[in-house]
Specification:
With about 130 residues, the protein is an all-beta fold. The chain is about 0% helix and about 65% strand. β1 (about 1-5) and β2 (about 15-25) form a beta hairpin.
């Protein structure tokens, strides 16, 4: 996988990830979070170029123990144009002092995890849900 920066729509920059046909479980795109208990919304824009994968890529949010999954979704598969994506989730009041946001390949291990093509991501934000 090769990562770089490209122009985003309306100015600014986007992350470009190019996959070279190898098996990919975790893309390496992850961010630790420290969200208080409550409801939130992940929002972003994405587009793909010739992305070939069995199940696409999805965002996962887990508690810092890496076992308690809070949410998964906002799947990226065939977004040829910039497409807004959302994922609503709730941080539990107990046993979730920190969280991880990760972009992963949900396909089973092995050949099914082969990824080829390009993904661009821009405008990632997490806000409190009403």
């Amino acid at each position: 996988m090769v990562a770089g920066r490209v122009q985003a729509p309306g100015g600014g920059h986007a992350l470009r990830m190019t996959f070279l046909g190898r098996n990919v479980g975790h893309t390496g795109l992850e961010q630790p979070l420290l969200l208080a208990p409550g409801r939130y919304r992940l929002e972003l824009s994405a587009r793909t170029r010739d992305l070939r994968s069995q199940r696409g890529l999805e965002w996962q949010i887990t508690c810092s123990d890496n076992r308690t999954r809070i949410a998964s979704g906002a799947t990226l598969h065939h977004q040829r144009d910039w497409t807004p994506l959302q994922l609503e989730f709730e941080v539990p009041a107990e046993n979730c002092e920190g969280q991880w946001l990760r972009l992963v390949n949900p396909a089973p291990r092995g050949v099914a995890q082969a990824l080829r093509g390009e993904l661009q991501i821009s405008g990632v934000s997490i806000t409190r849900a009403e």
